[in-house]
Amino acid sequence: MQEKGSISIHTENIFPIIKKFLYSDHEIFLRELVSNAVDATQKLKSLAQLGEFKGELGELKVRVTVDKEARKITISDRGIGMTAEEIKKYINQIAFSGATEFVEQYKEKDAATKDQIIGQFGLGFYSAFMVAKEVEIWSKSYKDDTLTAHWTCDGSTEFTLDEPTGEHEKAERGTDVVLHVAEDSDEFLEEARLKAILNKYCKFLPIPIEFEGEVINQTAPIWTKQPSELTDEDYTKFYQELYPFSEPPLFWIHLNVDYPFNLTGILYFPKIKDELQLQRNKIQLYSRQVFITDEVKDVVPEFLMLLHGVIDSPDIPLNVSRSFLQADAAVKKINTYITKKVADKLAELFRKDRAGYEQKWSDIGLFVKYGMLSDEKFYDRAKDIVLVQDTTDKYYTLNEYQEHIQANQKDKNDQTVILYTTDPEAQHGYVQAALDRGYSVLKLNAVLDPHFIGQLEQKLEKVTFKRVDADTVGKLIEKDETTESVLSDDDKTKLTEVYKAAINNEHMQVQVEALSPQDAPVIVTVPEFMRRMKDMQRVGGGGGMQMFGSLPDSYTVSVNANHPVAQRVLAQEGEAGQKLAKQAFDLALLSQGMLKGEALTAFVKRSAELLTAE
C-alpha cells in the first residue's frame, strides 16, 4: 500500500530554510549523501562485529552514478538499509538524527562505534534539494523479512511512501538515493564536476567510493596509522599528493591524541622563506575522514596557519551544514594542544640536531618569530630555541648571544646594546666601523624583524637594539670615555654653517662631533626610534604607526671635527668651502645608497673637477 503524508518539521517553516539558505555551497549535497551512505555501511560493519548481523557482508562500497539523459544522480550503498518505519522516523522527522540514536543504542557495546559514524547531523540528507526537484529513496533493511521501502518527495513538505513488490522490489540490502536534477543545476550532471566534488570531500573516506567504475578514494590515509608504521617516504609522498606543485616539506608532526579530545593529523613545515604574502588555508580539516573546510583559523592558532597538512577530529563542533566551526572549550583545548606539539617538535629538533636546525633556520625563522609575536605561550616555549645570526653567519640563541657580547657592548648605563644591520651590503661601512671597535653585529633583515626587535626589548632585561647606521659608532654604545675635538667652538659653529649652506635641506640636521680621525668625514644617520617606527609601519604596525609612515625622513648629519677634511673645509673661502662640504656630504649619502639621479650625476662631475684641480 502507498502512504502519503507531511514531513514532521520541529521548527515552523524550517524546510525552505534548509532547502535554500542552510547550505551556502550547493556542491556539498554530494558530501552529505555520500557521508550518509558511508555511515550506513559503517553501521552494518559494527553490527557484524557485535554479532548482531550474521549475514554475508560482501563487497562494501558506495557507488555514485550519473545519467545525464535522464537527469539523475544516484548514490547507492550496501549498508544497513531502512524499513518504511525507519524512513518515516529518520527522514520525515527533520532534526532527529538516526546516527545519533544508533550511537546511543550501541555505545555501551562498542566504544569505537561513535568514531565510525560520520552523520550526526539530522539535516544532511535535505541538502539534496538544493540541486534536485525530486528525490527518491529505495531502501531495503539488513533485517530479515523486511520489504523494500520507496520514499518520494518533490521538495515540498509532502511525501509518498510505499513498499513495492515484484520487479520494483530492491534485490539486496542497502539504500539508493536518486536525485532528479533541477533545471538550474545542470552543472551537477557533468561527470567532471561530480568527480571534482568527490575528490575534494570524499578522497579519504573509510569506505571505497566508486564513481563511473573507478574507486576515487584512499580508505586508510596515513594520518589514521601509527607513526611506527610509516616511513619518511610515506610522509613526503602524502605531502606531494596534497600539494602536487610544492617543494618537499622541511619536517612534519604526526598528531595522535585520544584524551581529553580525539585528534589525529599531520602538520608539515613548508619552505616559506622570508615573505609576508604567506600561503594560508593550506591545512585541511576533516571529521572522521570527511573533508570539512580549509578555513581552520578557530582550530589552529593564527601563526600556525603557515603550516600545511591535515587535522581530523570528531570533537570539533560544527554547525548543521558542517561548513563553519563553532568556537567553544573543545576548540580552545585543541588549539592549545597543537601549539604545544609544534613547540615541542621544534625543541626536539634543536636538541637532537643543532646543525640541522641551523640549516633549516632560513626557512623556519619567520614562522617561529611570527609565533612568538602572536602567541604569548609560544613565546615562552620558543624563546630558548629562536636563533639570531651575526654578520659572520654564526648562529646564537638569545642567551648565547647576550653572553657573547655582554663584556664589550654594555653602555655607561649598564644596558646591553645589540647592534644590527638590515642590509649588510648597503650598510657595510657602518658595519665595518662597529666591527673595528670589536663589536658584534646581527643580521636582522627579515620582514618581521622590526616587530621582533620591539618584542625582545620588552622581554629581555636591560637590553636595547640599535641599527648600525642609527648614529655614529661612538654614540651607538656610549661609554664614559670622551674624544676631544681639535676644533674651537668658533670653528665648530663656522663648520656647521658651511655644511648647512652646502646641504640646504631642512630635513638634514647638521651637528659637528668629535669622532675618531679614522671615522668618515661625514656620517648620515636616521634616529633609531624614527627608523624603527617607519620599518614597523611598512610591515603592518597598526593604526598608531601610520603617522610615522607619512612623516618625511629626518636625518642627522654628523660632521667629524677631527677628520682632516674638516680643516680643509674651514681653510676654503665661500663657494669653494661649500663645494668641498657638499662633496663630503654626498660621499656619506653614497655610502647609504641614498645618492641617486641628478644628485649622483652632479657628484660624479664634481669629483672629476676636484681630482683635476691644482
Automatic annotation (TrEMBL):
An annotated Gene Ontology molecular function: ATP binding
SMART domains referenced in this protein's UniProt entry, alphabetically: HATPase_c
Residues that hold ATP according to the record: 32, 36, 77, 82, 97-98, 120-125, 175, 322
Cited PROSITE patterns: HSP90
Keyword Lipoprotein on entry: no
SUPFAM superfamilies according to UniProt: ATPase domain of HSP90 chaperone/DNA topoisomerase II/histidine kinase (SSF55874), Ribosomal protein S5 domain 2-like (SSF54211)
Annotated keywords: ATP-binding, Chaperone, Cytoplasm, Nucleotide-binding, Stress response
Location of the Histidine kinase/HSP90-like ATPase domain: 25-167
Protein name: Chaperone protein HtpG
Gene: htpG
